[in-house]
From TrEMBL:
<dbReference type="InterPro" id="IPR028348">
    <property type="entry name" value="FAD-binding_protein"/>
</dbReference>
<protein>
    <submittedName>
        <fullName>FAD dependent oxidoreductase</fullName>
    </submittedName>
</protein>
<dbReference type="InterPro" id="IPR036188">
    <property type="entry name" value="FAD/NAD-bd_sf"/>
</dbReference>
Length: 426
């Protein structure tokens, strides 16, 4: 079978892939680009509720970025996504409270689209790329990526073997296993020793009123714990399937919808494993499977009131009592202490207590802690240059490659790869 020839092939259609595609076509309208995704629609953070952070270091892997480099590219990201920024109020009050207990609160320029409107944004972006002549294949899986003498070649699940002068691999967090396999096939060294493990907290709006002043507050606590992905308005906790088990995540609809009076956010602890335990991927699988096994095939949830008294939650705990509310994601009521490693839970609980000092009320007995929320995005390759090149013709970008931690950082990493492709053609 004769292979199709392109200037650039991009694996993925998430933010990193879009960043590369737009920058390539902006600077060379005649360039031929093929984008491939196994999903039926653009995946990643854009497809969820699409929170965007436009302030360094939020969303950037700091070991891969300087402030100057991030701030050079963020305006380019903003130009394409056209965000409507959220207003912030009373930030200094919360910041002073945080400083008193050794916590840092970042002032971040933020925008939010909402799960109900994210597909409209995706459609606009994909239609614009189609108008530029970018070819897109959805529901097609890449089974192999190979470096050749003058180009790179990929194999699709239907047997086709397109090749290009450059291949950008941008599979996102869900593609961490695919990325590992490709790196091993190519002989690319990589680091797989970092992951984020934590809980998703759900409570009433009156117990976390800071979201009225600051949509997605970014608190950084001691012991490498941070808040992540806050949702309010019409907010819910959702399940995400990873192979044979489920994780929890949070979503929120746009401000056009009436609120449900609830808030949810993640508290994540960054884990850095040392020799001889090196695989964050394997640790994530073990923790995810354990929680789902204890939960009878589902994640776990526990009320703060039960956790403080050292007893498990039961289905009866989630009732219509005066201070209670129904969970938006009815998983298995149980005891997080049986599933969360003790050191991780100790550091997360310490952060919860500090947060309750900054925003009194979050530790109300009715507050729910869901587990597990795990971010598997740190299979970081050994890069050949600052453009995230791993072989002469292959680049790896985005959250899956460990160079970003969110939509804007991922998009910017795609731009850096595109700049490297142009630089290589000179």
């Amino acid at each position: 079978m004769t292979a199709d020839q392109y200037d650039v092939i991009i694996i993925g259609t998430g933010p990193a892939a879009l960043g590369a595609a737009f920058h390539l076509s902006d600077n060379n309208p005649a360039i031929s680009i093929l984008m491939i995704d196994k999903e039926p629609v653009c995946s990643g953070g854009l497809l969820n509720d699409c929170k965007q952070n436009y302030s360094y270091p939020i969303g950037f892997a700091e070991e891969c970025w300087t402030r100057e480099e991030a701030e050079r590219l963020l305006p380019l990201v903003e130009r394409k996504l056209q965000p409507v920024f959220k207003e912030k109020m009373n930030l200094e009050t919360y910041r002073k409270r945080a400083e008193r207990v050794g916590v840092e609160l970042f002032d971040v320029r933020q925008a939010h689209v909402g799960t109900d409107r994210s597909r409209l944004l995706i459609r606009r972006l994909m239609d614009e790329l189609a108008d530029r002549g970018v070819q897109v294949m959805l529901r097609r899986e890449v089974t192999d990526v190979r470096e050749e003498r003058e180009s790179a070649l990929i194999t699709l699940d239907d047997g086709r073997t397109p090749r290009a002068g450059a291949v950008v691999v941008a599979p996102g967090r869900k593609g961490f296993a695919f990325l590992q396999r490709v790196m091993e096939q190519l002989g690319v060294e990589y680091v797989d020793n970092i992951l984020d493990v934590g809980i998703r907290v759900e409570t009433r709006l009156e117990n976390y009123p800071i979201v009225r002043d600051y949509y997605d507050p970014k608190f950084y606590f001691p012991d490498r714990v941070r808040t992540f992905c806050t949702n309010s308005g019409q907010a819910r906790v959702a399940l995400e399937r990873y192979g044979e088990f489920s994780l929890v995540n949070g979503h929120a609809l746009s401000s056009e919808n009436n609120g449900n009076g609830l808030v949810n956010f993640a508290l994540l602890k960054t884990i850095g494993l040392k020799d001889p335990v090196r695989s964050g991927h394997q640790m994530a699988l073990i923790l995810g499977r354990l929680a789902n096994e204890i939960g009878g095939g589902r994640p776990l949830m526990q009320r703060v009131g039960d956790f403080r008294m050292g007893k498990r939650s039961t289905a009866e705990t989630f009732n219509d009592d005066l201070y209670s509310f129904r969970p938006t994601c009815p998983v298995t009521a149980g005891d997080l202490g049986l599933a969360v490693p003790a050191k991780i839970m100790r550091h997360i609980w310490a952060a919860m207590k500090k947060l309750d000092t900054i925003v009194p009320g979050v530790l109300h007995p009715s507050t729910i802690m869901y587990y597990p929320e795990i971010k598997m995005y740190a299979n970081k390759p050994a890069f050949l240059d600052s453009h995230f090149r791993v072989t002469p013709h292959i680049y790896m970008v985005g959250d899956g490659a460990g160079v970003s931690r969110g939509i804007t950082g991922a998009w910017a990493s795609g731009i850096r790869a595109a700049e490297g492709i142009f630089e290589g053609k000179r």
